[in-house]
Give the backbone structure.
Amino acid sequence: MSNQPRERWGTRAGFLLAAIGSAVGLGNIWRFPYIAYDNGGGAFLVPYLLALLTAGLPLLIMEYVVGRRYRSSPPGAYRQLSRPAEVIGWWQVAICFVIAAYYAVILAWAVRYVGFSVNESWGDDPNAFFAGDFLKAGEPGTFSKFVPGVMWPLLGVWLVTLVILWFGVRRGIEWANRVFIPTLLVFFGILVVRAITLDGASEGLNALFKPDWDALTEGSVWVAAYGQIFFSLSIGFGIMITYASYLGRKSDLTGSALVAGFANSSFEILAGIGVFSVLGFMAAEQGIGVNDLATSGVGLAFVAFPQIISSMPGGAFFGVMFFLSLVIAGLTSLVSIVQVQVAAVEDRTGLSRKAAVLSVGVVLTAVSTLAFSTDGGLTLLDASDHFINQYGIALAALVSVVVVAWALRRLPLLQRDANATSAVRLGRWWLFFLGVVTPLVLGWMMVDSLRTEFDENYEGYPTSFLGWAGWGVAGGVLVVAVLLSLIPWRRHGDIGGPAADAGPVDDPQPKEGSR
């Protein structure tokens, strides 16, 4: 570990903005609206809010406490809980590496589409333009050439991300989020106001929020609600442990978790209003139902929305604002994902922040560019994203909760630590939700996902391609984690053992005066 004093957030507001910036990402804009629409509409908000209260917030609080108490990146924090548990931390670091490598590519696409929106370069067929003219996509597993139109903006995305990280937690990450989050709210607020004034917007909103109460009797709807909460709060892959490790000893953890959790959910609902207002307009224009247009992910952002932009008054302005919003939301999340790796390298090797940023950045930029800015990048990204989310993040979260709650029985210790400084005290409800509800839900999600996986190949991709691009990626991060955990720590930087449970040691930095 580094012998230098650990960095600190400048203010509690700075930490909250960073945590919100990490949670509010591309998934809030292009995943939540469709998930809600496809799982009961307005009725979906019932299991969604229950999932937030019974699993999302309890797990978020646990990660806050672990990060603040042990003042380390995930490998160091879990090592202090128990030496064998260090592998969980490295597993989360490896997951972040894979996600960062392809997440940056989507931001590069959004950067290009800001320019494409000005003169609606996609023409009459946005789908053909996106896959063919822009990405020059080939067959799954084919990597025959680089795509300059993706490679150059991708390098720009990495440059901006690494510059922010170069300046550290307070002067880099905190400052960037103080600028980006208000800007994102302004941009997206303008988009939503414009969207709800479009002809047909009410039909879109009715399609989204009209409750189908019968859907609540379906187990898949509840699985979808819990899955959305886990994936959207940035929990399960070490980000919040890392961010909380820069908090002061007297920080309010439960209050911060409540603010971050409800802010994230509020933005998701706002995104749903904006997206379905626009889909309602498009449906009215074409004389079809909203269900014929409703989609999510890459198809929504880079195919459906360009088609809508071409049809609406002032479409160029709307398109620029929409894709700028995607860039900003994605950038704040990307910074947090890469920070997990930077912190792990700092803690593990004793390198300075700048050296850690440089080493992580060079490797990530190279992997991201070589793998995803080619003609095979689209299918590789799609498969990697699916498998690392389903069998990386969700499984890592399940293992971490089971180990902390049942194998190590550390929840009462973490509960006392949080209650010592938090406004909202954790009672037995927290122990029950985290120790029973969360593991059961995550376990069922894994079973349900595997059953679907073995019924048919994801997206109909060839088995050989999924073998290495899907299962290989998901399994590879675990293998890498085990190998990293076996490397001995430097003697002067060794941490962990029973003494660590006495509580975190105050660092020599001045106490916070503004929290």
